[in-house]
Amino acid sequence: MKDQRGYSYETLARKAHMSRSSVHRYCRGIVIPVEFGTAERIARLCGAHTRQLSELYRFWVAASIPETDTDTDTETEREAPLAPVAVTQESAPAPAPVTPRPPAGSTRGAVASLAFILLCVVSLSGSAHSTTPAPAAAHSAPAPNAAAPWTQAPTPVPNGLFGMTLNSSTGAMPTFQIDTVRLWDSRTRWSNIQPRRGEFDWSILDRLVAGANGAGLPVVFTMGGTPEWASPNGPRTAYDDGSRTSPPDDLADWKTFVAAVADRYRGRIDAYELWVMGNDPRYFSGSLETLVEMTREAKAVLDAVDPDATVVCPSMGRLWDAAGMRGLERFSELRGYDSCDVAGVKLHQRTASDPPEQLLGLVGEIDRAFHRGGSHPKLWNTGTTYDIPLQKPLEEPAASANAVRFFLVGLYARYQRMYFYNWGGSKIPIVMQPDGQPPTQAALYVEELRRWVHGTRIRSCGNGVAAGLPVGVWQCRFDREGSELAVVWHETGTARVLAPQKLTAVHHLDGTVVAVPAERTVEVTTLPVLLTPAP
């Protein structure tokens, strides 16, 4: 496959983020990768399709004899997991058992078979074929929405990962622990703040910023909703304030508004999202060229007035639709992202009841759109779909499970911030805390997840067969003060997994902690659990 692709060892090593010597040893069959994900990464870079990956996996299983793997390369040691967390699948057919150790003398053939798959010339349009017999039992292919496992040097979990979009104008804040708040649907649109040219009403925004500052929560101020006076002939938004989806007739009015907000809240607003749903005509009906110009002008104003603030490009939604994705790509082609510190996207399931892991397929499409457009910005998830109020409420435990896993998927995707929609409201599928009421179970479980991972360093995430797990089981691994932790969950059902030797306590989202049983198997459900050393 390497030869077919035409890559040198140096090129393939650079693309795989490995050393040249590691790639050479893997492709020549001198050393077996400790994790299948390492071999998969090389194969995917060479254009492997699903059938080839499945065959490659079977040969990796046959060749993975512990005594054979004597590699001490830095990358290999860094990529190795504690131990496979996988044995029994209860909610779906289990993957076939790992092939037993071959008889003495057969290891060389198994290693050669693995190298053959990685190195031989194959047709990328057909199934790979090997003259070496594969083991009789084949493993199930990854689920359609599965994301490739990854491993990295331990990296701090982002401080702003746990965010909430406020659906309240009272100034009250969540009473459960989060990291940051975003202002939208809080009557803080441009049309609310500046109802007439030269006249500003700061009352609501003052309350909200004061409340967030008092709670120690960084604020993202989202702009949108052109006032009627600034674009009297533009289409109306869906809001009751007369706001328009069109840009202002005179962009000087836009610059004046941005400067007024930045001057008043300098040092008190952490970040500015320069428009909401910039590729959705229900929110912005101007051209993307105009939106890029507005972005550049706002960036210049903010750099002059509040240079410490983070500038978030106009967020892009409707990304499950080709037209929406094309809007993101076009904004990138126009170099719109050159004027921002961060890109905002609306990352959500097709429906709120779908497994949050579905988002990872969309994450891949977003990455490819940025690549085609020539931009690679940092990413924040700043919202949801326009249709979210129309979707049915989720019952427990699905509501709590989906809320918690929303943030875990953000970690898996390596996003810096995830803003859940919303806090303060009740006419949405997953209610966190209506303003003036206590937090729901979903909110308290999110708080517990934050407690688990806050201050840790994340080192890997994986799912399914490629990560040594049953199909449907997901995990992320962390380091905290020299101890290794694992958060494990099931996408749709229940499984029993084998806990690594060092992890002897099971923490549940309700705060209970139990010891890992003597047989070392732990039940995993759609509600994640944390595995740690004994408290």
Fold and architecture overview:
- The chain is of the alpha/beta class.
- It is 31% helix and 16% strand.
- The chain has 15 helices and 18 strands.
- The strands form 3 sheets. It has an 8-stranded parallel sheet with strand order 7-6-5-4-3-10-9-8, with helices on one face.
- Helix 2 (9-16) packs across helix 3, helix 5 packs antiparallel against helix 7 (107-119) and helix 12 packs parallel to helix 13.
- The protein is globular and about 75 Å long.
- It starts with a helix and ends with a strand.
What distinguishing features does this structure have?
alpha/beta, globular, 15 helices, 535 residues, seven-stranded antiparallel β-sheet, 18 strands, eight-stranded parallel β-sheet
Write the layout of secondary structure elements.
Layout: H1 2-5, H2 9-16, H3 20-28, H4 36-45, H5 50-63, H6 74-79, E1 88-89, H7 107-119, E2 150-156, E3 162-166, E4 180-183, H8 190-193, H9 203-214, E5 219-222, H10 251-264, E6 271-273, H11 288-305, E7 310-312, H12 322-333, E8 342-345, H13 359-373, E9 378-381, H14 398-413, E10 417-423, H15 441-453, E11 457-463, E12 473-480, E13 483-490, E14 495-498, E15 505-507, E16 513-515, E17 521-524, E18 529-532
Parallel strand pairs: 3-4, 3-10, 4-5, 5-6, 6-7, 8-9, 9-10
Antiparallel strand pairs: 1-14, 2-11, 11-12, 12-13, 13-18, 14-17, 15-16, 15-18
